[in-house]
Amino acid sequence: MSTRVTRRQFALGATALAAASTLPGLAFAAETKTVTTLLGTAEVPLNPQRVVTIDHRTDLEPALVLGLDVIASGYWANRPWVPVPEGMADLDMPTTAEHVLNLAPDLIICSGDEPDDEWWPTKRLTAIAPVLTTSFKTNWRNNLLALGEALDRQEPAAAAIAEYDALITDIKTRHAATLAGKTLASVQYFPDDKSFRVHLPDQGDYNNPKGEVMTELAVRTIDPALLGEYGLVSYENMGAALEKADGILFANSSNGDLALLADDPLWLRLPAVANGKVREMTGNTNFGSFYTSRHVAQAFDGLLGLFA
Questions:
Q1: Quick check: bond before 94 cis, omega within 30?
Q2: CATH assignment of 159-305, given 3.40.50.880, 3.40.50.720, 3.90.1150.10, 3.40.50.1980?
Q3: At what angle do helices 290-305 and 209-217 cross, to 10 degrees?
Q4: How far apart are CA 304 and CA 35, in angstroms?
Q5: What is the rounded average pLDDT for all residues in the chain?
Q6: Cα–Cα 20 to 30 A to 218, which of 22, 170, 212, 237?
Q7: CB neighbourhood size of 133 (10 A)
Protein backbone atom coordinates (compact mmCIF):
# COMPACT_ATOMS: atom_id res chain seq x y z
CA MET A 1 0.00 0.00 0.00
CA SER A 2 1.16 3.54 -0.66
CA THR A 3 1.90 5.85 2.24
CA ARG A 4 -0.39 8.87 2.46
CA VAL A 5 0.88 12.19 3.77
CA THR A 6 -0.87 15.39 4.79
CA ARG A 7 -0.61 18.68 2.90
CA ARG A 8 1.63 20.03 5.66
CA GLN A 9 3.86 16.93 5.53
CA PHE A 10 4.07 17.25 1.75
CA ALA A 11 5.26 20.85 2.08
CA LEU A 12 7.75 19.96 4.81
CA GLY A 13 9.03 17.04 2.75
CA ALA A 14 9.53 19.24 -0.30
CA THR A 15 11.44 21.76 1.86
CA ALA A 16 13.60 18.97 3.25
CA LEU A 17 14.39 17.72 -0.23
CA ALA A 18 15.37 21.19 -1.36
CA ALA A 19 17.67 21.58 1.64
CA ALA A 20 19.17 18.13 1.12
CA SER A 21 20.10 19.01 -2.44
CA THR A 22 22.65 21.52 -1.12
CA LEU A 23 24.46 18.98 1.06
CA PRO A 24 27.34 16.82 -0.21
CA GLY A 25 27.16 13.04 -0.14
CA LEU A 26 23.37 12.75 -0.23
CA ALA A 27 21.14 11.45 -3.02
CA PHE A 28 21.64 14.46 -5.27
CA ALA A 29 24.45 14.25 -7.77
CA ALA A 30 26.70 17.30 -8.06
CA GLU A 31 27.00 17.25 -11.85
CA THR A 32 23.86 18.21 -13.74
CA LYS A 33 22.79 18.86 -17.31
CA THR A 34 20.02 20.94 -18.83
CA VAL A 35 17.87 18.82 -21.13
CA THR A 36 14.68 19.26 -23.12
CA THR A 37 11.76 16.92 -22.39
CA LEU A 38 8.13 16.69 -23.47
CA LEU A 39 7.37 19.15 -20.66
CA GLY A 40 10.09 21.67 -21.47
CA THR A 41 13.57 21.98 -19.97
CA ALA A 42 14.87 20.28 -16.84
CA GLU A 43 18.12 20.23 -14.89
CA VAL A 44 18.91 16.55 -14.35
CA PRO A 45 21.68 14.84 -12.35
CA LEU A 46 24.12 12.86 -14.48
CA ASN A 47 24.86 10.42 -11.67
CA PRO A 48 21.50 9.90 -9.96
CA GLN A 49 21.46 7.67 -6.90
CA ARG A 50 17.73 7.30 -6.20
CA VAL A 51 15.78 6.87 -9.42
CA VAL A 52 12.03 6.24 -9.47
CA THR A 53 10.44 4.98 -12.69
CA ILE A 54 6.68 5.21 -12.92
CA ASP A 55 5.87 2.75 -15.69
CA HIS A 56 7.48 -0.68 -15.78
CA ARG A 57 7.30 -0.87 -19.57
CA THR A 58 8.55 2.43 -20.99
CA ASP A 59 10.43 3.76 -17.95
CA LEU A 60 11.93 0.92 -15.90
CA GLU A 61 13.39 -1.10 -18.77
CA PRO A 62 15.49 1.67 -20.36
CA ALA A 63 16.58 2.87 -16.92
CA LEU A 64 18.00 -0.58 -16.18
CA VAL A 65 19.68 -0.76 -19.58
CA LEU A 66 21.43 2.53 -18.78
CA GLY A 67 22.63 1.19 -15.42
CA LEU A 68 20.61 3.60 -13.29
CA ASP A 69 20.03 2.91 -9.60
CA VAL A 70 16.27 2.35 -9.60
CA ILE A 71 14.85 2.24 -6.08
CA ALA A 72 11.15 1.97 -6.97
CA SER A 73 8.94 1.39 -9.98
CA GLY A 74 5.52 0.38 -11.08
CA TYR A 75 6.11 -3.28 -11.94
CA TRP A 76 4.10 -6.30 -13.09
CA ALA A 77 5.34 -9.58 -11.70
CA ASN A 78 4.62 -11.52 -14.91
CA ARG A 79 7.55 -9.95 -16.78
CA PRO A 80 10.34 -12.22 -15.51
CA TRP A 81 12.70 -11.35 -18.37
CA VAL A 82 13.25 -7.88 -16.89
CA PRO A 83 16.25 -7.95 -14.47
CA VAL A 84 14.56 -6.15 -11.58
CA PRO A 85 17.08 -5.01 -8.94
CA GLU A 86 16.92 -6.80 -5.61
CA GLY A 87 15.09 -4.67 -3.08
CA MET A 88 13.40 -2.41 -5.61
CA ALA A 89 10.09 -1.20 -4.19
CA ASP A 90 6.82 -1.65 -6.08
CA LEU A 91 4.75 1.49 -6.52
CA ASP A 92 1.01 1.27 -6.11
CA MET A 93 -0.52 1.88 -9.52
CA PRO A 94 -1.79 4.42 -10.21
CA THR A 95 0.74 6.00 -7.93
CA THR A 96 0.59 9.42 -6.27
CA ALA A 97 3.04 12.28 -6.00
CA GLU A 98 2.87 11.89 -2.22
CA HIS A 99 4.04 8.28 -2.46
CA VAL A 100 6.92 9.23 -4.71
CA LEU A 101 7.87 12.12 -2.43
CA ASN A 102 8.34 9.73 0.48
CA LEU A 103 10.96 7.87 -1.54
CA ALA A 104 13.14 11.02 -1.85
CA PRO A 105 14.19 10.44 -5.48
CA ASP A 106 16.80 12.56 -7.20
CA LEU A 107 15.47 11.63 -10.66
CA ILE A 108 12.08 10.45 -11.92
CA ILE A 109 11.34 8.86 -15.29
CA CYS A 110 7.73 8.99 -16.46
CA SER A 111 5.73 9.09 -19.68
CA GLY A 112 4.99 12.65 -20.72
CA ASP A 113 2.23 11.86 -23.19
CA GLU A 114 -0.59 12.71 -20.77
CA PRO A 115 1.13 14.68 -17.99
CA ASP A 116 -2.05 15.24 -15.96
CA ASP A 117 -3.20 11.60 -16.09
CA GLU A 118 -3.50 9.77 -12.76
CA TRP A 119 -1.36 6.90 -14.06
CA TRP A 120 1.43 9.20 -15.25
CA PRO A 121 1.17 12.36 -13.08
CA THR A 122 4.21 13.91 -14.70
CA LYS A 123 3.43 17.55 -13.97
CA ARG A 124 2.94 16.91 -10.25
CA LEU A 125 6.12 14.87 -10.11
CA THR A 126 8.23 17.81 -11.32
CA ALA A 127 7.68 19.45 -7.92
CA ILE A 128 9.55 16.54 -6.28
CA ALA A 129 12.58 15.91 -8.50
CA PRO A 130 13.74 16.41 -12.09
CA VAL A 131 11.63 14.35 -14.50
CA LEU A 132 12.82 12.79 -17.74
CA THR A 133 9.92 11.90 -20.01
CA THR A 134 9.33 8.87 -22.21
CA SER A 135 6.55 8.29 -24.73
CA PHE A 136 4.21 5.48 -25.73
CA LYS A 137 3.95 7.18 -29.13
CA THR A 138 7.34 6.06 -30.39
CA ASN A 139 9.40 2.89 -30.41
CA TRP A 140 11.65 1.66 -27.63
CA ARG A 141 14.84 2.62 -29.46
CA ASN A 142 13.90 6.30 -29.55
CA ASN A 143 13.04 6.34 -25.84
CA LEU A 144 16.27 4.57 -24.91
CA LEU A 145 18.44 6.80 -27.09
CA ALA A 146 16.77 9.95 -25.75
CA LEU A 147 17.34 8.93 -22.13
CA GLY A 148 20.90 7.91 -22.89
CA GLU A 149 21.57 11.27 -24.52
CA ALA A 150 19.99 13.18 -21.64
CA LEU A 151 22.13 11.39 -19.04
CA ASP A 152 25.34 11.12 -21.09
CA ARG A 153 24.96 7.35 -21.15
CA GLN A 154 25.01 6.89 -24.89
CA GLU A 155 27.31 3.85 -24.76
CA PRO A 156 25.02 1.41 -22.89
CA ALA A 157 22.09 2.55 -25.05
CA ALA A 158 24.05 1.90 -28.24
CA ALA A 159 25.33 -1.43 -26.91
CA ALA A 160 21.79 -2.68 -26.17
CA ILE A 161 20.58 -1.69 -29.62
CA ALA A 162 23.59 -3.38 -31.23
CA GLU A 163 22.91 -6.57 -29.25
CA TYR A 164 19.27 -6.56 -30.29
CA ASP A 165 20.08 -5.86 -33.95
CA ALA A 166 22.56 -8.73 -33.94
CA LEU A 167 19.86 -11.04 -32.58
CA ILE A 168 17.42 -9.98 -35.31
CA THR A 169 20.07 -10.50 -38.00
CA ASP A 170 20.90 -13.94 -36.62
CA ILE A 171 17.25 -15.02 -36.56
CA LYS A 172 16.68 -13.78 -40.11
CA THR A 173 19.79 -15.60 -41.34
CA ARG A 174 19.00 -18.92 -39.69
CA HIS A 175 15.33 -18.90 -40.66
CA ALA A 176 15.46 -17.14 -44.03
CA ALA A 177 13.58 -19.89 -45.90
CA THR A 178 10.82 -20.14 -43.30
CA LEU A 179 10.35 -16.38 -43.11
CA ALA A 180 10.10 -16.23 -46.91
CA GLY A 181 7.72 -19.15 -47.29
CA LYS A 182 5.48 -19.36 -44.21
CA THR A 183 2.68 -17.21 -42.87
CA LEU A 184 2.91 -16.55 -39.14
CA ALA A 185 0.36 -15.06 -36.77
CA SER A 186 0.91 -13.55 -33.34
CA VAL A 187 -2.29 -13.75 -31.31
CA GLN A 188 -3.62 -12.95 -27.87
CA TYR A 189 -6.68 -14.69 -26.42
CA PHE A 190 -9.35 -13.12 -24.25
CA PRO A 191 -11.16 -15.89 -22.34
CA ASP A 192 -14.04 -13.69 -21.18
CA ASP A 193 -15.61 -13.52 -24.62
CA LYS A 194 -13.35 -16.07 -26.37
CA SER A 195 -12.11 -13.45 -28.82
CA PHE A 196 -8.62 -13.00 -30.22
CA ARG A 197 -6.38 -10.09 -31.10
CA VAL A 198 -4.07 -10.66 -34.04
CA HIS A 199 -0.95 -8.51 -33.82
CA LEU A 200 0.10 -6.75 -36.98
CA PRO A 201 3.48 -5.39 -38.08
CA ASP A 202 4.44 -2.05 -36.58
CA GLN A 203 2.64 0.97 -37.97
CA GLY A 204 5.24 3.32 -36.47
CA ASP A 205 3.00 5.41 -34.25
CA TYR A 206 3.27 3.76 -30.83
CA ASN A 207 5.31 1.44 -28.64
CA ASN A 208 4.55 -2.05 -29.93
CA PRO A 209 7.16 -4.77 -29.27
CA LYS A 210 5.38 -7.57 -31.12
CA GLY A 211 4.65 -5.42 -34.16
CA GLU A 212 8.17 -4.02 -34.21
CA VAL A 213 9.74 -7.49 -34.12
CA MET A 214 7.43 -8.68 -36.90
CA THR A 215 8.49 -5.73 -39.04
CA GLU A 216 12.20 -6.23 -38.35
CA LEU A 217 11.98 -9.95 -39.16
CA ALA A 218 9.85 -9.23 -42.26
CA VAL A 219 7.24 -11.70 -41.02
CA ARG A 220 4.52 -12.66 -43.49
CA THR A 221 1.29 -12.50 -41.56
CA ILE A 222 -2.50 -12.42 -41.74
CA ASP A 223 -4.32 -10.16 -44.18
CA PRO A 224 -5.60 -7.20 -42.09
CA ALA A 225 -8.81 -7.27 -44.16
CA LEU A 226 -9.76 -10.45 -42.31
CA LEU A 227 -9.57 -8.70 -38.95
CA GLY A 228 -11.76 -6.28 -37.08
CA GLU A 229 -10.76 -2.99 -35.48
CA TYR A 230 -7.45 -3.21 -33.57
CA GLY A 231 -6.93 -6.69 -35.04
CA LEU A 232 -9.79 -8.21 -33.04
CA VAL A 233 -11.39 -11.45 -34.17
CA SER A 234 -14.52 -13.02 -32.71
CA TYR A 235 -14.55 -16.69 -31.75
CA GLU A 236 -16.90 -17.46 -34.64
CA ASN A 237 -14.48 -15.88 -37.15
CA MET A 238 -11.34 -17.51 -35.74
CA GLY A 239 -11.17 -20.12 -38.48
CA ALA A 240 -11.52 -17.67 -41.35
CA ALA A 241 -8.91 -15.34 -39.87
CA LEU A 242 -6.29 -17.91 -38.87
CA GLU A 243 -6.71 -20.77 -41.36
CA LYS A 244 -3.90 -19.44 -43.57
CA ALA A 245 -1.42 -19.25 -40.69
CA ASP A 246 1.29 -21.91 -40.89
CA GLY A 247 2.50 -21.06 -37.38
CA ILE A 248 1.07 -19.20 -34.39
CA LEU A 249 2.87 -17.30 -31.66
CA PHE A 250 0.43 -17.37 -28.73
CA ALA A 251 1.02 -14.35 -26.50
CA ASN A 252 -0.15 -15.54 -23.08
CA SER A 253 -0.30 -12.31 -21.12
CA SER A 254 -2.00 -13.80 -18.07
CA ASN A 255 -1.92 -17.40 -16.88
CA GLY A 256 -3.13 -20.56 -18.56
CA ASP A 257 -4.86 -18.98 -21.54
CA LEU A 258 -3.51 -21.51 -24.03
CA ALA A 259 -4.51 -24.39 -21.78
CA LEU A 260 -8.09 -23.11 -21.91
CA LEU A 261 -8.13 -23.95 -25.63
CA ALA A 262 -6.77 -27.48 -25.22
CA ASP A 263 -10.15 -29.08 -26.00
CA ASP A 264 -11.66 -26.36 -28.13
CA PRO A 265 -12.80 -27.86 -31.46
CA LEU A 266 -12.42 -24.70 -33.54
CA TRP A 267 -8.94 -24.02 -32.18
CA LEU A 268 -7.81 -27.62 -32.71
CA ARG A 269 -9.03 -27.48 -36.29
CA LEU A 270 -6.64 -24.68 -37.24
CA PRO A 271 -3.83 -26.02 -39.49
CA ALA A 272 -1.07 -24.49 -37.35
CA VAL A 273 -2.51 -26.11 -34.22
CA ALA A 274 -3.13 -29.46 -35.89
CA ASN A 275 0.44 -29.50 -37.22
CA GLY A 276 2.04 -28.63 -33.87
CA LYS A 277 3.27 -25.23 -35.01
CA VAL A 278 2.19 -23.17 -31.99
CA ARG A 279 4.67 -21.48 -29.65
CA GLU A 280 3.48 -20.04 -26.35
CA MET A 281 5.05 -16.77 -25.20
CA THR A 282 4.32 -16.18 -21.53
CA GLY A 283 4.24 -12.85 -19.72
CA ASN A 284 2.85 -9.44 -20.58
CA THR A 285 4.48 -8.12 -23.74
CA ASN A 286 2.09 -5.23 -24.38
CA PHE A 287 4.51 -2.29 -24.55
CA GLY A 288 8.11 -2.45 -23.39
CA SER A 289 11.69 -1.64 -24.21
CA PHE A 290 14.88 -3.57 -24.91
CA TYR A 291 14.22 -6.51 -22.59
CA THR A 292 10.66 -7.07 -23.78
CA SER A 293 11.57 -6.70 -27.45
CA ARG A 294 14.40 -9.21 -27.01
CA HIS A 295 11.98 -11.59 -25.28
CA VAL A 296 9.52 -11.29 -28.18
CA ALA A 297 12.29 -11.83 -30.75
CA GLN A 298 13.43 -14.96 -28.91
CA ALA A 299 9.85 -16.24 -28.88
CA PHE A 300 9.59 -15.78 -32.64
CA ASP A 301 12.93 -17.58 -32.94
CA GLY A 302 11.37 -20.49 -31.05
CA LEU A 303 8.33 -20.53 -33.33
CA LEU A 304 10.48 -20.45 -36.44
CA GLY A 305 12.53 -23.30 -35.01
CA LEU A 306 9.45 -25.54 -35.13
CA PHE A 307 9.80 -25.58 -38.92
CA ALA A 308 13.44 -26.68 -38.92
A1: yes
A2: 3.40.50.1980
A3: 50
A4: 43
A5: 88
A6: 237
A7: 27
